[in-house]
């Protein structure tokens, strides 16, 4: 049996993410995971019981936005892959997503009574765009940050743990609000404020403390990439995307794309984008 060499052990240690990088990055999942409770569990009852919005309007609004949102993640993934800045690709997009998410959350949780279907559709769409930007950027940045399988498992395991704690913490808000003499509506609004306040704080901390490796294809021409000088995942041509999918069975795609939301909503664009970034990073650093 061949024993690992000292060089292999040394490289393994060097590639392990220190907690000083891992934990600041993981905090970005606090406001995102809280949305799984505040938006997808509490927001609809809040709109109907406290703001007087009919169930028909709520259902129609959510259905309309989800249909419009189907292609958003794919489009965002393409734009992110083509982004070239000194900040990197995904750090910049995380920063862009924060104000969009904050605006959408504020307009939904602080909405006036009797809002119309148009109001609901517009601000739900803004919310989903902000969530998609931050979710995709976070997943891709994480895959870029931890290019090897074991370390990536550790990173996303910490993200999931932080997200679970965040979801449990935000559930306590209505209880605390009631014990302090606030109304149920104010308790739900506090859940919204939780993500509104923590989104800029956690993303700023991650942007400050977490590095982003600039991919090797930054600055190269499209011809160079197509010539195979740089590894890449699904690109503009369908054959490339099909070959990438053929290499990965469905069981890989399902957990990779699931979000920590009720009903385990599967986001295929997130799966494709995350897998693409991880594959490129593996190829780049293992050579």
Brief characterization of the structure:
This protein is an all-alpha fold and 287 residues long. The protein has 14 helices and no strands. The chain has a domain at 19-215: Growth Hormone, Chain: A.
Describe this structure in words.
The chain is mostly helical. It has a domain at 19-215: MFS general substrate transporter like domains (Growth Hormone, Chain: A). It has helices at residues 6-14, 19-26, 29-50, 55-68, 72-81, 90-109, 117-145, 149-171, 173-179, 184-209, 222-226, 238-246, 250-257, 268-286. It is globular, with a radius of gyration of 21 Å. Residues 1-14, 218-276 and 279-287 have low confidence and may be disordered.
* H/E topology pattern: HHHHHHHHHHHHHH
Strand content: under 5%
CATH class of the domain at 19-215: Mainly Alpha
What percentage of residues falls in helices of 4 or more residues? over 70%
CATH topology of the domain at 19-215: Growth Hormone, Chain: A
Beginning-to-end CA distance, first to last residue: 24 Å
* CATH superfamily placement of the domain at 19-215: MFS general substrate transporter like domains
Rounded radius of gyration (Å): 21 Å
Query: What can be said about the biggest beta sheet?
Result: none
